[in-house]
Amino acid sequence: MEFSSKLIEKAVNEMAQLPGIGKRTALRLVLHILKQPKEQATFLAQALVTMREEIKYCNSCHNISDSEVCEICANSSRNHQIICIVEDIRDVMAIENTGQFRGIYHVLGGKISPIDGVGPSQLTISKLVEKVKLGQVKEIIFALSSTMEGDTTNFYIYKQIADLPIVVSTIARGIAVGDELEYADEVTLGRSILQRVPFEKSLKTN
C-alpha cells in the first residue's frame, strides 16, 4: 500500500496493530478521523491516553475499574457469597447485560493454555483460592468458554478447592461447545447462568 503522506502511513500502521483491523480498514478509519474537526481527534487521543494512564484493576475481583474497588464489588446489594469466574472484562459485561446475575465476579485474566505459554501462575487463580479459603464464599460458578483451555482451567481450579465446603457449579451448556462467552446472545447466556449445574455433573457428562 503506497501512501502520499508519511504521517498518514504512520497513523495507519499504528491503527492496523489493533486486533481485527487490517491496513484497508485502518486507512478508512484514519481518513475518517482526518475529516472530523480537530477537536474530535484531540478528544479521542486524550481519552486513550487518560484510559491507559489512569485505568486500575479492582483489588477484589481484578476487573478493570476506575477505582481501587470496582462498582460491582462495592455494591452492598450484590450477593458477595456467590462468585462467577470469568476470563476477562468482556465476559463480565456479557453476563451483566443479561440482568440475571446478582453475585460478584473473579476475573482470571485468561485461560490456562500451555501452547501459548499461559500457566496457572500467569492468572489470578491463587488469589481466588485464597478468597475461597477465607470461608465467606458459598458458591463459585465457572463461566469460562466451552473450549479445551476453558475446561482445563475449570478443572485445575476445581482441584484446588475440591476439599473446601463450597458449592461448585458451571453454566449450563446452552452455550455451544467451542463458543466464546462474549458472543452468546443475552437470553441464552442468562438462562445458562440461571440453569447452572453442579460442576461434578458436568465432568461426568463430558
Characterise the protein shown here.
The strands form two sheets. The protein has a five-stranded mixed sheet with strand order 4-3-5-6-7. A two-stranded antiparallel ribbon has the order 1-2. The chain is built from nine helices and seven strands. With 206 residues, the protein is of the alpha/beta class. The chain is elongated, with a radius of gyration of 20 Å. 26% of the residues are buried. Helix content is 45%, strand content 13%. InterPro entries: DNA_Rcmb_RecR, Rcmb_RecR, Rcmb_RecR_Znf, TOPRIM_dom, TOPRIM_RecR. It holds the Pfam family Toprim_4. A zinc finger (C4-type) spans 58-73. May play a role in DNA repair. It seems to be involved in an RecBC-independent recombinational process of DNA repair. It may act with RecF and RecO. Belongs to the RecR family.
Keywords for this structure?
206 residues, alpha/beta, five-stranded mixed sheet, two-stranded antiparallel sheet, 9 helices, 13% strand, elongated, DNA_Rcmb_RecR, zinc, DNA damage, Recombination protein RecR
Structural class: alpha/beta
Coarse morphology:
elongated
- List low-confidence stretches: none
Order of helices and strands: HHHEEHEHEHEHEHEH
Radius of gyration: 20 Å
Q: Could you tell me the strand content as a percent range?
A: 5-15%
Distance between the termini: 49 Å
Strand order, biggest sheet?
A: 4-3-5-6-7
DSSP strand count: 7
Average pLDDT taken over every residue: 87
